[in-house]
Amino acid sequence: MIRDIAETEIVLSAQGLHKSYKNMEALIDFSFKMRAGEIIGLLGPNGAGKTTAMRILSTIFPPDRGDFSVMGIPHRRTEEIRALIGMLPESMGFPMYMAGEEYLTYMGRLYGLSSHNAEAKAWDLLTLFGLADAGDARIATYSRGMRQRLGIARTFVNDPKLLFLDEPTLGFDPKGQQEMLQVVKDAAAVNQVAVLISSHQLEVVEEICSQVLILNKGHLVAAGEVSDIKQKIPASPACRIEVSSETVQNALEVLARVDGVEAQANPNRQNEIVISMQKDGANTVNVILQSLIQAGVSVESFTKESVSLSDAFLSMIEEAQA
Amino acid sequence: MKPKEKQPGWMVVLSTETRHLWLGRQGPLLLLIFSIFLSLYTTLVALDPEMNVLSPRSMTNVTLQTTMLVGILVALLLTANSISGERDQRSLESLMLTPLPRGQIAIGKFLATLSLWLGMIPIAIPYIVLVAKSTGMIPQAIMLLIFLGSLLVMLCAGIGILISSFAPSNLVSFAASFITILLLAAPNQLPASVRDLPVVNWFIVFDPITAIAKYQAGILDGAAWTQELGLLISPILLLILIAALGPRILNRRLSLQGGFEQ
C-alpha cells in the first residue's frame, strides 16, 4: 500500500545496490535516500555508474544485490513503481513516424489514462514545454532540442512522484535550458516531486540541486549538500583585483609589504592582480584594500573567489582515483 | 453516460501499431507487393500450360504453399522488426518504463502483425479460385488457406517476435528469424525419396512447417480432413506453448540490450 507522502517524506530509499556486467562492477554498495520535493544531482565521470544507478532505480535493470523502494513499494514490484516514476534516458529515441501529440497520448494511455484524458494531458504538456505548435508534426521533423523537450514532457505524462533525468540539458540553447530547469524546479517545489538529475554541466547541478551524490568507478565517493561538498575542498582563499594600468606596478609593491598575502599579475588579463591569502576573512581583505587606497592605487574591481562545485567535483574524483 | 472503461495495455499497443501499419505506408505497400506477386505468379506460372508441368491439384498445392510462404515472410519482416526495431531506435526504454507488463507489449505488436495477414487472405482467394477451378476443390483450398495459413503465420510471427525480443539488433533479428524459418521449411524441399525415409518422416512430424505442408498435400490429394490430423499436433502445440509461455518469459526477461541476461 502506498503511504501518504506527508507521513514519510521519503520517496526513494536505496540500500547497498550492486550491479556488475560480466567482469566489470558498475555500481558498488550504493545507498541513499530522497525526500519529496528534493532535487539531487548525480555526478561522476563517464563510466562512474550514473546511468546504471538510474536504470536500476527506474526498474529497467534489476540490481544484482541490494534493495530499494519507491514510496514504500519494494523494488520487485516493478510495475507499481513504474506507475509512480518518470525517467528521461540519455539519448532517448522516439517512434519517428508519430506526431508529438500522438506519442504523448500513446504513452499516457499505456499509463492507464483514457484516450480523452491522455490527449488532453498530451496537449497540456506540449504547451508547457513549448511544443504546442509542433504537436501535430511528426517527431522525425523535430530538432534535437525539440526532441529533448518531448522526452522531458513524456516523463510528466503520469504525474510522477519521482523523476530521473539523465543529461536533461543536452541539445538545449541557454534560454531553453533555463525554461526546462524552471519546470523541474516548479515540479519539485509545487508538486513535491523528488528529482534525481545527472548532468555533466556542473553549473546546472549547482543551480538546481540542493544535494549531490558523486560516483566514481561505481563507488559513492561523496554525498551531501552542495555547500558542504564545496567546503570539503582545502583551497586557500584568493581574490582578484583590477587596477588602472599605470598603477599595476605600484599595487604589486604595496601588496608585497602586506603580511600573509602573495600577489602576482595575471599574465592572461591586463591590469589584473591575483592575490593568494594565507588566512580567509574580512580582516585580510580590509587590509589589502586599505593599503592599496592609501598608496593611491585606483581599484576598478574586486572579486573574492570561492570554490565551485566543479572544483569540488574534480578534486574528489582525483582524490578517489589516487 | 457510463464512463468508457480503460483498455488493457496490449490493446493500446495493438490499436496504435495497427493504425500505423494500415494508415502508414508499410501495410498498404506490402499488400500491393503481395497482390502484384500473386498476379504475376498466377499468370506466368500457374495458368500458363507451357510452363506448368504439374497436375492441377499439385499446382493448387504449390500455389497455396507459395501464398502462405509470402504471408510468413511478411509476418516475419514485421515481427522481426517489432522489438529489436524499438531497441535499435532507442525507443524501447520508453515503453519498458511504462507500468505495462512487458509481455503485453509483445502481444500487442504480434496481433498487429496478424492484422496484415487478415488483409492478405481476401487478396489471395481469387487467385486460389482461379488456380483450383479445374480441380473441383475450391472450398477445400480456401479453407486450407484460411486455417492452415493462419496457423502458420501465427506460429512464425510468434517465433519472430520471440527472436526479436532477445536479438541485440534488428540485423541479428532478421537473420535469425529467416534462418529459423528456412531450417523449418527445408525438409519440405527434400526429394520425395528422402522425405519417405523413416528418420526424415519422424522429423517431419515434429517440424511444424513441414507437417502442415504434408497435411495440406494430403487434403488436396483427396484425404479426409481428419485422416492425418496428427500432423497438426506439433504446430498447434508449439503455438500454444509460445502463446502461454512467451508473454511470461518476456515479462521477466525482456531487456534493454537484448540477450537473456538482465
Number of domains of chain B: 1
Mean pLDDT over the full residue set of chain B: 89
Q: Work out the largest interface and the residue count of each chain.
A: A-B, 31 and 27 residues
Estimate the strand proportion of chain B: under 5%
Order of helices and strands of chain B: HHHHHHHHHHH
Find the structural class of chain A using helix and strand composition: alpha/beta
Please indicate the percent range of residues of chain A in DSSP E strands (runs of 2 or more): 25-35%
What is the tally of helical segments of chain B?
A: 11
Shape, principal axes of CA atoms of chain B: globular
Q: How many whole angstroms does the radius of gyration of chain B measure?
A: 20 Å
Number of strands of chain B: 0
- Biggest sheet record of chain B: none
Low-confidence stretches of chain A: 1-7
Write the CATH fold name of the largest domain in chain A. Answer: Rossmann fold
Reading off the top of the CATH hierarchy, the class of the largest domain in chain A is best stated as Alpha Beta
Provide an overview of this structure.
The complex is a heterodimer of chains A (322) and B (262). Chain A has 322 residues and is α/β, with parallel strands linked by helices. Chain A has helices spanning 5-8, 50-57, 78-82, 100-110, 115-128, 144-155, 174-191, 202-208, 226-231, 248-256, 282-294, 309-321, and strands at 10-21, 24-35, 39-43, 65-70, 73-74, 85-88, 162-166, 194-198, 211-216, 219-225, 238-243, 261-265, 272-277, 299-305. Chain A has a 6-stranded mixed β-sheet, sandwiched between helices. In chain A, helix 4 (100-110) crosses helix 5. The model of chain A is unreliable at 1-7 (pLDDT under 50). Chain B is globular, with a radius of gyration of 20 Å. The mean pLDDT of chain B is 89. Chains A and B meet through helix 3 and helix 4 of A and helix 1 and helix 4 of B.
